[in-house]
């Protein structure tokens, strides 16, 4: 981002700040909001240093105490802990760029502790309120009901953020595989399965979108604004903005009479997605993968949003836990006793027993033994696939679960009839 040949050691701090901002703007994977915030934070830090120490102060003179004094000034101004942590992160990134350019020997900002405060647990909706809000999104008196329903369905069913939603294009929907491509922060991509409800809402919206644009589709953006502003500007896109999505979600919440969550945001649906998945038995790592985050803070928030799941795990696994009463299992397939008996086309002669065991005790049929072991292995693998993935992913996962259950039933049947010859 900063050219070491153009700026020798001892260059002006303010000039290096300008170069840093220009380098961030050229980064293709950088988020424009992050670029603007980091540039502003570094500019405030450099201006405060020049004001206190003079223009002769260079980047090599900056110490940890200078950074700590700047953070203390932010506390005096009343900035919150996340704002101060963002300022420190911007300064660290700036120093990393200077070190790569050869203007610094080490990053002194790495040794400054990050401001930490109490863990903020976001608000979520319960399952009943969420379903009522999503179902009512397409029936409310709004300018574009189909689009608003598709937006709410996409955020809650895919577990995507506001920024990821507005960045989606038409080519990101893979109808044959029933998947969507989500582009997260830093240019990272992930595949998220599509459930039937989201697919139905997207198809209804795309039909109206095609009628509005006409025969020639002039924009790759998936979600468009109502007036098609910017269709002939900014790369021929009428893409919906994140602020507009926030207003749409809040308006739907108000019209749905969710009085407890009037001040609602798109991230409320995102965190509700994660909490509801955990309560339904989804593993934490899988939920984090669907949400596109692996940070420890996100894991802590998800754990606090779904305390019942942690309590159930504790009661089930801890020696001093209180086990819940066993629930009677519902058989998904007919039992082996009720399975139809297959009549062999040829008569199977029983194996003669050796008298006195002259050749040793009778050996078991090795082929039958291998079939039995294979059936048990397939059952174990498919049980893990079915009960860990199938019930809650999507319609394709449900179909996979049905096939897996069928294989498990066949394995039970063949293992029980292992005495038959092959």
Provide an overview of this structure.
This protein has helices spanning 13-26, 32-53, 64-76, 81-100, 127-136, 145-158, 162-166, 196-213, 242-255, 266-279, 284-291, 296-305, 307-317, 366-388, 395-416; strands spanning 173-174, 179-183, 189-193. It has 422 residues and is an all-alpha fold. It has a three-stranded antiparallel beta sheet with strand order 1-2-3, with no helix packed on it. The chain starts with 12 loop residues before the first helix and ends in a 6-residue tail after the last helix.
CATH superfamily of the largest domain: Intergrase catalytic core
Q: Judging by the overall fold, what is the CATH architecture of the largest domain?
A: Orthogonal Bundle
How many helices does DSSP assign?
15
Instruction: State which percent range the strand residues make up.
Output: under 5%
CATH class of the largest domain: Mainly Alpha
Helix content: 40-55%
Structure class: mainly alpha
Predict the CATH topology of the largest domain.
Answer: hpI Integrase, Chain A
Distance between the termini: 70 Å
Shape field = globular
State mean pLDDT (0 to 100 scale): 75
How many distinct domains? 3
Rg, alpha carbons: 30 Å
Q: Describe the biggest sheet?
A: 3 strands, antiparallel
| Spans of at least 5 consecutive residues with low confidence | 1-10, 327-342, 353-362, 385-404, 418-422
Annotation, overall tally of beta strands: 3
Please give the order of strands in the largest beta sheet. 1-2-3
Order of SSEs, N→C?
HHHHHHHEEEHHHHHHHH
């Amino acid at each position: 981002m900063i050219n070491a040949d153009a700026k020798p050691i001892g260059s002006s701090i303010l000039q290096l700040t300008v170069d840093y901002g220009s380098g961030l703007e050229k980064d293709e994977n950088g988020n424009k909001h992050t670029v603007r915030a980091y540039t502003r934070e570094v500019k405030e830090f450099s201006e405060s240093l020049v004001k206190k120490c003079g223009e002769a102060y260079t980047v090599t003179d900056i110490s940890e105490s200078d950074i700590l004094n700047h953070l203390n000034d932010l506390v005096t101004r009343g900035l919150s802990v996340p704002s101060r942590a963002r300022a420190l992160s911007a300064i660290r990134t700036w120093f990393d760029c200077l070190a790569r350019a050869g203007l610094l020997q080490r990053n002194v900002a790495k040794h400054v502790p990050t401001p930490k405060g109490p863990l903020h647990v976001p608000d979520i909706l319960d399952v009943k309120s969420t379903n009522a809000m999503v179902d009512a999104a397409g029936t409310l008196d709004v300018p574009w009901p189909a689009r608003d329903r598709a937006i709410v369905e996409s955020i809650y069913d895919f577990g995507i953020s506001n920024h990821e939603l507005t960045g989606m294009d038409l080519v990101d929907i893979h109808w044959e595989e029933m998947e969507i491509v989500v582009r997260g922060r830093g240019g990272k991509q992930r595949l998220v399965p599509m459930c039937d409800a989201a697919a139905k809402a997207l198809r209804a919206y795309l039909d109206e979108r095609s009628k509005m644009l006409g025969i020639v589709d002039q924009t790759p953006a998936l979600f468009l604004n109502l007036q098609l502003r910017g269709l002939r500007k900014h790369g021929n896109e009428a893409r919906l903005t994140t602020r507009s999505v926030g207003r749409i979600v809040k308006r739907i919440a108000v019209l749905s009479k969710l009085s407890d969550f009037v001040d609602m945001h798109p991230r409320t649906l995102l965190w509700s997605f994660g909490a509801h998945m955990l309560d339904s038995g989804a593993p934490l790592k899988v939920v984090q993968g669907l949400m596109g985050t692996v940070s420890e803070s996100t894991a802590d928030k998800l754990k606090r949003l779904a305390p019942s799941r942690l309590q159930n795990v504790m009661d089930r696994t801890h020696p001093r836990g209180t086990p819940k009463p066993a629930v009677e299992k519902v058989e998904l397939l007919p039992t082996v006793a009720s399975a139809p008996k297959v009549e062999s086309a040829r008569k199977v002669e029983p194996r003669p027993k050796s008298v006195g065991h002259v050749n040793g005790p009778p050996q078991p049929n090795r082929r039958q033994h291998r079939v039995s072991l294979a059936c048990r292995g397939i059952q174990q693998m498919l049980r893990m696939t079915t009960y860990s993935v199938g019930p809650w992913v999507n319609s394709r996962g449900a179909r996979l679960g049905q096939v897996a259950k069928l294989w498990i039933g066949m394995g039970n049947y063949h293992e029980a009839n292992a005495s038959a010859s092959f």
